[in-house]
Structures are given as structure tokens and as C-alpha cells.
Records
---
Amino acid sequence: MATAPHLIAPLPLISTEVAAWVESVSALTRPRAVHWCDGSQAEVRELTARLVRERELHQLNAEEFPGCYLYRSDPNDVARVEHVTYVCTRSQEDAGPNNHWMAPAEAHDKMRALFSGCMRERTLYVIPYCMGPLDSPYARCGVEITDSPYVVLNMAIMTRSGRAALERIAREGKFVRGLHSTGELDPARRFIMHFPEELGIESFGSGYGGNALLGKKCHALRIASWQARQEGWLAEHMLIVGLTNPQGETHYLAAAFPSACGKTNLAMLIPPQSMPGWKVETVGDDIAWLHPGPDGRLWAVNPEAGYFGVVPGTNRDTNRNAFDMIRRDTLFTNVALTADDEPWWEGRKKFTPVLDWKGQPYDPKNGPAAHPNSRFTVAARNNPIYSPRADDPRGVPISALIFGGRRREVAPLVYEARNWQHGVLVGASVASETTAAAVGQAGVVRRDPMAMLPFCGYNFADYWRHWLEVGAKLTRAPKIYHVNWFRRDAQGRFLWPGYGENLRVLAWMLDRCTVGAGATETPIGSLPRPADLNMNGLDVTSEALAALFSVDRTLWRQEVAEIGDYFSRYGARLPAELLQELAVTQKLLG
Ligand code: SAT
Ligand code: MN
């Protein structure tokens, strides 16, 4: 077997498994060179400079946006591709009705043919990475092999990558193998395959986000959810945020929402002026690994080290923290450009775009200037309210778990589950309108249990059973809530202002968990009455409040029937507890 020349010598302390795997991949893909990423600043600087020279990256206005670059992806490669994302378990039942499935041998054959010789004129990059603090027992490592320098730059921001991760792998022996090539970016030759039983990922034909940054959705959710089930923890699509009340007590919440429903904004929330004394700190904005602790509480770590957030809508009024965060050392993908080389997006108040996200002269007739799924990649440490606890190897204790979706009607602003078991039902029945984060029509309501529909690496029925089992281990389980920031009136206007005002709802939850704030019992759970929430300075009409705090029994009876239909897809594997809880709700609805 011929081996490609190494551009730089392999790092010390490299495990033989990693070396052998890199060798076999390079024999298959035939790269021009192999580069082992050491994760240093110098490496990132050199690669960035090269990509600017090669016009792959565009340097943005260095005075206004120092250290910021624009990358334009192929116009047919701008979002996750759920229809060609597969979970390849030996038994189809293990993947479940929630996943596309292919037999492992067939998938490996298909991918081998695609990967064969695919890196001929390219460099193969080896990226050792660690998801979670390097010294945390909860962290898990992987190695991504890719031929995309853009992926290298993103992984350097999004994960703890390079030398230290490689050393941890050498000590532990175990790592997730992620093989990625952009191929020819041909949508017909694009597949994202997961082999949870082998801790392997193979991704071909896309260079974008969750299809290509394999540490993120592929590893930290699909593969990790499988590992978590075996090891007794949960890998969830959740932000983690710390709230300190005016009395100085800090509590941590974890919240699951589908992609592009405001997780980053909630994690970086700015308290409204009428709520002085509150402090918010971000632990994570997208993924939480949750472990039952020896004290009977649930502990959370954020496996990531950066944010891959939605750009449009970000401005000083909606989220000043996010706006300040992305003014330096940020990699922008698919935003528009102003005449002064500043990045521009819908919702950016100043200036106008001259070039759209495809690099064409901007013409509103061709749609938005920035792609609706345009993204920023930025180090978590750039966040002005980054929590120092984000690097704590023990994680943070969680007081409340929140599920939410984007729903015009039905779901009230907030309600509290009766108990853990009911909370699992509430999470399992989340529904949400689709967004631009995945290819397909936006705005269609679909069930998205725990906001994990595209990300759970195994059968949802087994996953809900696992949720029930984890809950049974917790003597101090968090309370579980459902929220909906996206209710609209008959004219389509949002009823709730959202953003910083969401703190009013979070504060009520914390008061429920501590001093026992007021609520009223309803068939779907406990709802605050408007008077139970801090309403100081809130500008919402009483009609809007009435709608936000009401449970329409007719709509909810229909909702319960739809949830029952949805669950029937899971057949005998569905935990009976969920049907029992659904029956309780149905009975209470009368
Ligand atoms: O493309 S990503 O999966 O990284 C972002 C998202 O869809 O949440
Ligand atoms: Mn996400």
C-alpha cells in the first residue's frame, strides 16, 4: 500500500489505532498530502491566509470586523440534508421509524465507492478533537478526516481539537471515526451515514454545517445518543444557561428547541431593563450531555467550544451580546456584503447589501440578501456572557428542563409537566414548524420529539424508555416545562415579544423550583396566571395575554388524538407509560 507523504510529522503520543485508520483512509482516498492538525493558532492563521489567497475566503472589513471572514458555500449546499442522512444499525428496528436506515454492509460499500480516490488532488486533514472539557470524565473524543479546509477552520473553533485531544485518545484508546469528503458537491452523490455500533460516521458530498462538521450533530447527538443509552446518560439538542436572581442564587436550565428556533438567543439572553438584578450566563447554545450525578441531580456539560449560529435577525436590539460577539474573529457563511466589505444580513439595521450570499449583485427580486440559514462560527469565549462553569469538568446541575417548538397556535406560552413521566410525554410530543436549517419546505408543522427528530441515533421508542429510566435514577429530578415563544394572532403577528422578555417565563420556572411560585392546574399541566409572572414594564395587550395563557380544550383534544396517532408508529416498543400519561391528559380534557 502506498502512503501519501506527510506534510508535517505525526504528533507525539499518537495511538496506533488512529495511525492505522489514517493509513487505510489515505490508501482509499489517495490524497496528495496528509496534514495532522495540531490545533495551534499558527496553523489556523496559515490555513486562513492560504484560503484568502485562493479566494475561498474573503476577508471582511478589518476595522469594523477584525479577524472576520466570509465563506460562500455552493448554492446547492446550504443546509442539513435529512433525506439522505442514515442510521446504519444491524437491525432496522434499532434505527426506528424516526431514521432512514440502510444495512451497514450496503452503506459501507456505497460509501467506499464514493470515497475511492476522491482526494486525489487534495490534502487529507486529520482533526483529533474532544467534545467536552478535556479533563472531564463526561467528554468523548473523535477524529475527523476531511478534505475540506473550511471544515478544519470550523472544527478548530467548534471543538477542543489538536494535540491535547490526540493525547487523550492515546490514553483512552476509544474514539469516534468520522470520515468526510466534499466530493463533487453533487446532491445526487451526497450521503451522511452513521454506524453507531462501530462508532463511525461517513459523510460525502456536502461541505455544510451539520453535514460536514462531524463533531456536532453526527457525533455529539446521533452517535453520542447511542453511547449515552448504553452508558446511562442523555445526549440532547439543548442549550444550557445559568440564571442568577437578584438574591444572588444561580440556577441552570437546559432547553431543547428545533434548529433555528432561537436557542443561541435564549442562551445569550439580555434581561429587560424592568428586571434589574438578574444575570444570565451561557454554558452552551446547542447541545447538552446530561448525566445523573451521585447527588441525585442531573448534571450538564456542553460538548462544544463554539457556536454555529443563525445570523439573520441578529442586531443590537434583538441580542446585543450576539451582535458584539460576532464583531471579531468570526467566520461568516453565506451572508451578504456591503460596499465597505462588511457582512450584511436581514435584520442588520445599518447599511445596505451590494452583493448577495451567492456573490451576485443584490436584487431583492432574487430573494433575501443573506441566506436564511446563513451562519456565524465563533469561539464560545468570544461571548461576553460566557459562563466560567462551561469549562468545569463536572458540568452544572440542572434545575429545569424546557422543551419548545415553533407553533402558531395550540401550545400556550408556558406550562409545567405534572412529573418526570408526564414531562417525557411533553417532550415526546413536541411539534414545530420546519425552518431553513434543513433542506425542504419551511413552515410545515411536524412532530419533533425533544427537538431530536433529525438527531436521535436510534429508535425513538427506546429513547423515550431511556428517558424514563434516567428519570428513575434522579432523586432530585429537574422540573420539566414546555414553552412556545411563537404564538400568533389571526393576522399572523407574534403575540409574545420574545428575546429578553423570555426571562419573565424563566424566572417563573425558577420560582416554581425554589419558593413555589403560583400556578393554576389545567389538563395539560400547570400554567402561570398572568399575575404569577413578573409583568413590570411588559408591553403586551390583555387579549394577547389571554391567548398566551389559555388552553383551548377543543384544539387540545385534537392535539391528543394526533399525538396518539404519531405514537402508534412506534408499535409495541413504545413505553406504555407514555400512553398512560396521554390517557390522563385526555381524561382531564373531558
Ligand atoms: O447545520 S447544523 O446542524 O450544524 C445547524 C442546525 O441545523 O442546528
Ligand atoms: Mn442545533
Note: The domain at 236-305+388-589 is CATH 3.90.228.20 (Phosphoenolpyruvate Carboxykinase; domain 3).
---
Amino acid sequence: MATISSQQTHIPKTNNEKEEREDYETTYQKYSEALQTLPKERGWMSEHLVQYQGYWLSPKSALKGVLLVQHHFKARPTDIFLSANMKCGTTWLRTLMFATMNRSRYDFSSQAHPLLNTGPHGCFPFLDASIYQNYPINTNLDALPSPRLFATHIPYTLLPQSVTSSGCKFVYIWRDPKDVLTSLCHFSERIKHKEVTSLSLKEAFEMFCEGVSHYGPFWDHVLEYWKASLESPEKFLFLRYEDLKKEPSIYLKKLAEFMGQPFSLEEERYGVVQEIVKLCSFENLSNLEVNKTGVQWFSNELVVDNCKFFRKGKVGDWQNHLTDEMKERLDQITKQKFNGSGLNFGVSPK
Ligand code: PAP
């Protein structure tokens, strides 16, 4: 797979390709300039985070992805995006979406089902990284059949107009920020570069509250998608991890309907909904060989062991890590930020 440096040795063959190549070079130039000028803070898993258009991004992967998506991604009105801040349940929802969309193509009981062999992230692209994997960048994504599925952490206001103003649909998942923080702390510690100094829980907590986390501020990320969903409800399915955990079959049916692939009465009678829920359950996925030993190559800068996407898969694990003061402060921020929005986290799980 081509890296940025090998892209520089690619010889353009047509005028279009030449223009496209020049456009990419302009974007990479902008990227290099941005790296020099954007505000910087200490990172969680990368050395730094940089602040771009109000959001904190890892400079090597997320910022590059955002700029390339903003300038080069060609949306189709049939595209469906799975969007979320980090650690809100993308891995799980990705498998539910893939299994549902492809249920007539792959037999769940067969060992050949892609989810059993490729790992959750292999089944459809993580846009933020896929966009810069190959040159010419869009070719691979252009070759995907419609409706294309993409996962992204990109905040709503950082997406290009071609995505937000077309018919593209969004499945958005969010989660109690106390569990997000807990999950993010563990994940960062497990995947951070060796040279990056570990954050203590106290440091991570302060940074999270200040909005300095990957694709943070967390609350702004949720609120922007929420507000967009109020304006165009037909384009959004808003889900909470906790609800999905409690009643997976109910939300899976909503998801299938939203993606234009509702379950037929016959499918329901044959237990297809339950089969998908079981296939994508934490217990099943985390015990697969591919998820115990496999690796997901997102880009040269982003290679992650599949097992690191599976930790506990529980609601309320924050209780084992956060102090009462931390809980109070996070709940207070959530209450303040979501006040009047119609979003409500409800009662914290005991
Ligand atoms: P990402 O932002 O890196 O993509 P994401 O998949 O959104 O991560 O979130 C990871 C969380 O989902 C982990 O939560 P935890 O740390 O609190 O345990 C992970 O364990 C959980 N998770 C992964 N797969 C599943 C699943 N099939 N069912 C429920 N939770 C899951």
C-alpha cells in the first residue's frame, strides 16, 4: 500500500490525474503548514493533539484524514456513515451494520462469514484513515458498490458539504462520558507509542473535562450531530450504547429499517434478528481467533491489534475507576452542556 512518500514518486498518466495529484499536493502542503501553526496540547496516545476548527486531533492520522476528507472525498447520496466520538461503540455497531446489510449474502452459521475472519474493522472502511491509504486516494473508495458504509470519528461541522448537504445518512452512537473516559484511558495506555508518557487518571480526567481528548470536546461532538439530527431527522439514527446493550434486538430492527433493509416478518419468525445480535455480541466477537491475535492495519501510522478494541463491553465500568468527585464533575458538565438540547443522559447506572 502506498505511503505519502511513495505517492510522491507516482507518475501521473492523464490530465485529470495530473490535476488531481496537484490538488492532493496542495492539501499536503496545507497539512504541513497546519502542523506548524495549530495550537498543541499533550496527547493521550500520540505525542500531541492539535486543535483544528475547534476539535483536538492527533496530528499524524486524524488531522491528515480530516483535511483529505474535507478536500477530496466524493460523497454519494446513498452513503451511510457510522459516526461517533471515540470509545462509544463503533466496533460493535460496525459489525451489526455489516451483518445486517449483508445478511442475504453471507450465512451466519458459516465459518466463511467475513466477521469471523477479518475482524470488525476489516468489514467496511474507517474513512478518516482509508482516505489516505492509497493514491489516487479516491479510487478505492469510488470502486465500492452503493450503498457504501463508512465509519468516522470526524465531527459533524468538520465534514465537507458534499456529505452534510446530500442525502447521506448517519448512524450516530454516543455513550455515558464517564464510561467513555474510562475506556479511552485504558485504550490509550494499551496502544500509545512507547515514547509517549502515560497519562495518570487524574491528568486524563482534567484533559477530558477541558475537551482535550481525541476528537474532543466530547460533548460538542455529540451536540453537533444531535442538532443536525433535529433539523433532518430522516437522515439520522441516534443511538446510545446503554440502550443498545439493554435492548439490542429492538435497536437492531430500527437500524435495519433506517438502512433501508427492514427485517421481514419471516426473517423475524426465523430468529434472524437474534442471530445477528448473537454474532455481534461482545462475548462472541472477543473470543474469535481473529480478534484475539489479528491486527488491523488502518495506515502506516495506525496499526492496532484487534484485541484492543475489546475490553469489558459493560455499562458503568467507570464505577471501578472514577472517584465520587470525578463522577460529580463529569455529570455536572454533561448536564450543563446538554441543558435545553433535548439530550438527556438520565440516571447514572448503579
Ligand atoms: P473506537 O473509538 O476505538 O472505535 P469503540 O469500538 O467505539 O472504539 O469503543 C470501544 C468500546 O466498545 C470498548 O468499551 P470498554 O472499554 O468500556 O470495554 C469495547 O470493549 C466495547 N465493545 C467492543 N465490541 C463490543 C461489542 N460487540 N459489544 C459491546 N461492546 C463492545
Note: The CA atoms of residues 40 and 50 lie 5 Å apart.
---
Amino acid sequence: MLFETGIHSSADARRLARRRLPWMVFDYIDGAAGQEHGAALSLRAMQDIRLTPRVLRNVGKRDLSVTQFGKLALRPFGISPMGMCNLAAPEADLMLAKIAREHRVPHGVSTVASTDLETLYKASGGTAWFQLYFSGDGSGTLKLLDRAREAGYDTLVLTLDVPEVGRRPRELRHGFKMPFRIGPRQFLDFAMHPGWSLASLAKGSPKLANFDGKDYVFDRTESRAAADWGYFDTLRMAWPGKLVVKGVLSADDALRLRDAGADAIQVSSHGCRQLDSAPPAILTLREIREALGSEFPLFFDSGIRSGEDIVKAYVMGADFVFLGRILLFAIAAGGIEGLRTLWSVLSQEISLTMAQLGVTTIAELKDVSHLWTPPNGS
Ligand code: FNR
């Protein structure tokens, strides 16, 4: 059954998704900020990290589980929050919730999800974390917070790296908008991709499901620039559960957030969708880990394309790792089977890499001695 989808790596998923998705949708998922130098550099930095294989360590039994915030996750990776996932395929949000439930891993549910936060919390079997954007004067933001708490969420992911939505030329070229609008240009694009169009548009075009337009209308491009440290303190007081701050690349910010009451920090460049000149997130991860010491919970996303990349993030200091684009590509390529296949590919890649490094648990990966450095620093 496995691999019937043709997915043997995340690159396969991306290639198949590119064929199936309208250009506008593919570029919404795949695109990055500015000239996309940052996105390329981020992948390059990940590739440049080399790991040292070890021998004779009896690695016959390997365990991929990790405990995070006191809960056992069966895989060392989870789902980063992403808006409008149902553009990849109808019910993509529910597929993500389902796999999160099966493997008991955190499922980031975006403020701008295409399925409402209550439905996704239930579908994920309580593994979902709600991701919050500050918007407008903040009053709508606090309403969402209350809704998330009432729905049962115990962990909030506050994304802070979008004071303004980044300029992503690939989206702009296609006239990409949320809520979704279909003009003549999009109509042609959809006509050229009938497989996607028939399946997706038959279900009605995806919507920003957390906003019914009565209480609070969400504008994706609305400025969030007014958020400051006072706002962080207000949110910290308003949210009794775990608070994860996503989108941090500076060690100084990380230290201040820890002191201001964040329970964890998610080092992330938003997949380089915000600042083309951002440093490779994987390199800042190590810097931030060194600044915070070994105990403070540090999560990571951005530029993960394989199980080996996941292992590298643990070696660089992560306590948990989140995936973005590649999951949507797997769904676009093969629906839930595509997602399951990629999930299994990543799990195998992690397990094989652990065997190569001579470790049997994820905890043993958190050690920079796995890094290979060229002789004489050359
Ligand atoms: C995102 N990301 C994101 N992050 C967030 O906090 N809230 C959101 O609504 C979204 N929406 C979103 C949509 C799409 C299509 C993508 C690709 C990404 C960012 C996401 O959580 C994560 O930081 C990056 O995707 C990680 O980079 P990779 O793994 O995609 O390279």
C-alpha cells in the first residue's frame, strides 16, 4: 500500500502537488518573501549541517516518541499552524487533525484556518494548539482567545513575526486574496487544473472558517503592528494555559520572552515568508539554545524537508519540531494517503538517521557532538 502515492520524499510530494494544484494555490503554499533568497539560504544552511555517523552502538530498538508539556507524542514532529489548508485539497484541515490524533502530536490550528477551531479541536482528539494573530485594536483577538478556551484548548501559540503580512511576489502576481475570490485570471488557472477544481470547487471555495462576519471580520492583510510588550503582558494574563511564542529569531527577544512568562519559544522564520533577509532559522536555533540554556522548552520550524532535517533540528537544540509546506504538498499530491505516506517516509528517515548516529532515543539527539565540523575549521 505504502508508496502507491509515488511519494518517496518531500520533494516527490512537492513535484506531484505542483502538477495538480492551480498555479495560484501552489505559489501561495510554496512562495516566500521578496526575492526568496532567504528561503533558498535557509534550505542551503540545513543541507550544510553534517552529522557524524558512529558504529557498534547496538541501535536495534529505536524510540521516536517525545514528551512535551507532560504529554507523550508518538513522533518527534508536529503540524505547524497554516492558514487556508483546504486550498491544498478539500478537508485538508481534517486530515491533519486525524493524523495528529493517531500519532498524538500537536496540531497547530491557525487563526485563519479553513475549518473552525471547535471542529478541529474535537477532530484532533485534544492534541490541537490554537495559533493566535493579534489584529486591529486587539478586541477581536481577545474574543478568539475566549473561544479557544471554551473549545478546550490548553495551549496557545502566539505568532509574533507578522506585524505586517510580508510581500510575497508570487501571491501578488496571481492576485491571491483571502477570502478567496475568483476573477477571469483565476478562472483560467482553475480550468487548466480540472482535477483540483472539480474536487475543491464542488465543495464550495475554502473560507476563513473562524470568522462568521458578524462578531468580527478578519482581514488577512490588516496591520498587526500595534502589538508591543504591554500587549504580550495582557495576553499572558488573559491566557491561563501554556503559551508558546512563535516566530522568534533573536536571542535577546527569546530571553525577554522567557522572563515575561512565555512557556516555550518556537524559533521560526515563518518558512521565510516574512523577511527575505532573515537568517537561516536553523542557525539561530543553536544561538538561542546557547542563550537560554538546556532546560527552557524550545520548538523549531522552517525549512524542514526530511527526517534528517528533523534530526538536525534536535541536534541544534530543539525540544520539538514542526512541519509546514511539505504536509500540504503531500495532501495535494495524494489526499490522506499522501499525508500518511509522507508521515511514514519522515518517520523512517528519522529512525534510519538515529541508527547511523548510534542513538536509540530522541533525547540522545540533543547533543551538538553529533555535528561534524571540517578539520581545522576549513
Ligand atoms: C504558514 N505559516 C503560518 N504560521 C502561523 O503562525 N499562522 C498561519 O496562519 C500560517 N499560515 C501559513 C500558511 C502557509 C500556506 C504556509 C506554508 C505557512 C507558517 C508555518 O506555521 C511555518 O512557520 C512554516 O510553514 C515553516 O516553514 P516550512 O516548513 O514550510 O519551510
Note: Residues 24 and 176 are 7 Å apart (CA to CA).
